[in-house]
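[09:14] KT: can someone run the structure on this one? pasting the chain below
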Amino acid sequence: MKINAAKFYSSLFIVLLLLQLYLPSFKLNLVVQIVVIAVFMFMEKTAFSVFFLKQIKPLFLLFVLGFVGAVIYRPQLFDVIRDISHYIKPITGLLIGYLFYRRIDNAHLFFKTIVIAGVISAIIHLGIIKVLAGTGSISEIREFTKDNFLELFSIFVLLFYSRYTNEKLFNNIIYVVGALLVLAISSMLYFSRTMIVLAIVMGLSVFGYTIITKKTLRIIVGLFVFIGLFYAYLHTANIRRNGKGFEQFLYKVKIAPEEIYKTNINLDDHRKLWDHWRAYEAGRAVHLMTEHPGSFVYGTGFGSLVNLRFFAPLTGERKGIRYISELHNGYIYIFYKVGTIGLLIYLFMLGRWYKFLYRDKTFVSVMVSATGLIFFVTTITITGIYNNRDIIVFLLGGLLYFSEKERKEVAS
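[09:31] RB: done, structure tokens below
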């Protein structure tokens, strides 16, 4: 019996996306992804275009650069291997998205698959919420669900695909309305500050407001004024740190900016420390780099660890851990591992993706551009493309193939 390649690889793509979201083991996910790529390349005729190689080249450069500091500072082999796996992960994600949809060669099916995967994920999420209902604790709910950018992507695909392509994604309007309802409810119940910001970024992108013009600058300034007034209200309102439900969420929104930049923290004041943990660990990383000035150029390399100065309860272990490899602030994480050179390469890569919107006004180009901006934002708080659970890079692989295809069609 002949297997339908489009159905098979689309189904496998959905499975890999859901594993990325719900299988807690990063190592197992990476092994599965590498095996899938290896089997695909053995079974299928595989080729990479110059266009795609240019897009993925910065990730390979960052990967190679990580060995410079490792050779100079000679860390433990186990720690080196761990960092190597983190720098391989976005490469495997791009390859899976690109190879699968180069083989399928159907943009309509690609976006349809994203929505189907998003709806399945939303149903799973709502099921988890139902099990945890009644706790009254947003932090407990988020402990099991975190963020989900797949669902956010699915919403925007459902809302704007037809507007850009003049083609219906689904013929059944009942399914479209039902899917939007499920996705919207699920997305709101993540109580995620990052998802709110990314929804704004994607909204600005699909309406064309991320192209720099006088009009978009006025809109962006207006948005910042609104955000400033909102934060002014939050800092005058009596929002308790130990509040329940939505009040707890508002407190997390209130302290969000301080989480990033406030590094002068009393270690004995655990309340302040946990509220500003991202800033503390980033500050420790930069301080350690001053001990090796050369690391500001090429980084401390794979295997380097950040000494927290105390045993922090980050992994559920009773004793806690004193040395960590990853940081929440992705810019500091990249800076710490691969230095200024690596940070510039990373920013160049994101800038290149963002600029897709200036070349073409197609839905594919808009989504690639939005992805570049999304990584620019998520790198500040959750390590961006190097986040263990990042799922956007898989979608980006498919988007890059269809962008390449569109350019070839225009050129011919």
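[09:33] KT: thanks! The beta strands are 306-312, 321-324.
[09:34] RB: yep, looked fine to me
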